[in-house]
Amino acid sequence: MKITLKEIALLLGGTIVGNDNIIIENIRPIEEAGKGDITFIANKKYLKQFKTTEASAILVAPQTQADGKNLVIVADPYVAFGKLLALFYPLKHGYNGVSKDAYIEETASVSPEATIFPRAFISRGAKIEKGAIIYPGVFIGCDASVGENSILYANVTIYHGCMIGKRVILHSGVVVGSDGFGFAAPGTGNHKIPQVGFVQIDDDVEIGANSTVDRATLGRTWIQRNVKIDNLVQIAHNVVIGENSVITAQVGISGSTKLGKSVIIGGQAGIVGHINIGDNVMIAAKSGIHKKIESGQVVAGYPQLPYRQWLKVEACRVKLPEMKATLEELKRKVETLQEKINKQSR
Questions:
Q1: pLDDT digit string (tens) for 276-335?
Q2: Total structural domains in the chain?
Q3: Are residues 242 and 282 in the same domain?
Q4: Residues recognised as catalytic
Q5: Are residues 53 and 114 part of one domain?
Q6: In degrees to the nearest 10, what's the CA dihedral of 7, 13, 18, 21?
Q7: pTM to 2 decimals?
Q8: 234 in the same domain as 122
Q9: Residue 71's domain is classified under what CATH number?
Q10: pLDDT tens for residues 31-78?
């Protein structure tokens, strides 16, 4: 692909410093970029590479300066980088139409404008809307629905009655609507509690490979608009995740917990059930969340602590061997002093 820097700036709503007529043919990392390439800098620690990069142009944040370089100044270079990647490398699925080798049960409604690959299974009463792309090995259960322009990659499973919104991306191995983990008399009778609710996934959600979203016991498990979930995440029954939240790999969220809007959770964090987490909360990786968190808080640790307090605790922990040696030395001195006092008192 060939495009002028001026055209790129118009697309991104950016401002050019330098030659706006140069031709851009590719996007490369700053350390690899050469003539005809555009790159980006979103982190100040890479500014030192301005001098050495041979890129023809660089996406940068406002107030960035570099003599002799062609710059495209944008509000967020990383967002602009993403838009350019979509332009230069459009996603191609390699198949169109509804395959005769897909199994579509009677009463299922499949838009002729959807793409259904061979060996997909769409159950009775299911609804697949236009622009949806269903890859091989996908199972869509009875009365489930998939919204416009959603993509379900190979071996995704959507259980009965679950609702997938528009422009949702479910990566390979995602399971939506499996039974929530509900058992009475756990550890003895283990009596199964039927899970008769459903899962609702709103528009523009993306869920990474091999993540699971359990159906509700009653009512719904609800993933709200524009939530982004990484690989290997477990969402339990009746959980609600507020819009624009981000959950990274290997997080587990227990049943009936409710997350507010724009919550960010680091990898391997675990959250107990039946608690509320407020809007704009940040949870550090490997945290153990055992109680509610008010809006706007940043927490870390196992169990959770306010972030600044956790930093102090961690700073002390690395000094524990030294502190232990000091305490043992003080103990010896106290014992020696006590012996002297005892001798004098006789």
A1: 999 999 999 999 999 999 999 999 999 999 999 999 999 998 899 999 999 999 999 999
A2: 3
A3: yes
A4: 237
A5: no
A6: 10
A7: 0.91
A8: yes
A9: 3.40.1390.10
A10: 999 999 999 998 877 778 888 899 999 999 998 888 889 999 999 999
